[in-house]
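Pinned message: reference record for Transcriptional activator protein Pur-alpha
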Amino acid sequence: MSDRESGDDQPQGQSKYGQGGMDNVGNSDFDSGKWSGETTPQSSPSLGPATPAKPARPAAGQNQQGEQELATKMLQIQSKRFYLDVKQNRRGRFIKVAEIGADGRRSQIFLALSTAADFRDHLSSFSDFYASLGPPNPESMPEDGKLKSEMMIKENRRYYLDLKENSRGRFLRVSQTITRGGPRSQIAIPAQGMIEFRDALTDLLDEFGTDDGGFKGDLPEGRHMRVENKNFYFDIGQNNRGIYMRISEVKSNFRTAITVPEKSWARFRDIFADYCDKMKDGSTSGGTSGDKASSSGTDIGPGPK
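Predicted structure (tokens):
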């Protein structure tokens, strides 16, 4: 893999991008879509208009979790084609940037709308710096090829922006990593196309704003329950995957926990309620076992601050 091209060449399914696709590759936080395709070399960049898109219709066997595509733009920069798709799911809105190279290689990164706004501003800065550079000089080229670098941080994601130079020219490499691990994904934008890329982002952000969406209210306070010599803690949290409940069991030097996504709470509740009803029916027909269970000594209250 070179600095100018990166991606995954495994063909999967059919999509609007061509004969192939990539589903949920590298960044499950955003419920990635599917894409692929061929490119047609072109000497000058051209910018296609944003077009409204119908809600995505997940194919059989795919888990799109109610994802919708709100708009899309296509950019042809030299021999590369870029798709900027505004998408929405229950966790909010984001932009999927898909790059397809002349040789069919493809890669993608994901940007929350607020991150896309920061990226747009960086593109202006990088474009100004690029315009101030003289013609390439192999003798003065940095050893690592980097001419200018910046970094963006969004929750557990980091984005590395590197304006680089090699024998094929100058380009902006955008790398996305996740702090807890996972594959690294990146795209490479030819330097002379940074202005067109920035303008495309600006059009989308003007239409959809920079608010990532998702849950904005106050989360419920944690709860604590003691049963005999065990403590149970119920804590509500939120990250870029959504809202979750962490249930921790603490006993002496032993601690374990599970994390339940908010979308599954109702199902968990129904299962618990079903077991409670069955145990209640059994205790009614079987004697005093229900009374013994209810007198085991519990203390329920708010969790520790």
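Pinned by admin. Summary line: The mean pLDDT is 77.
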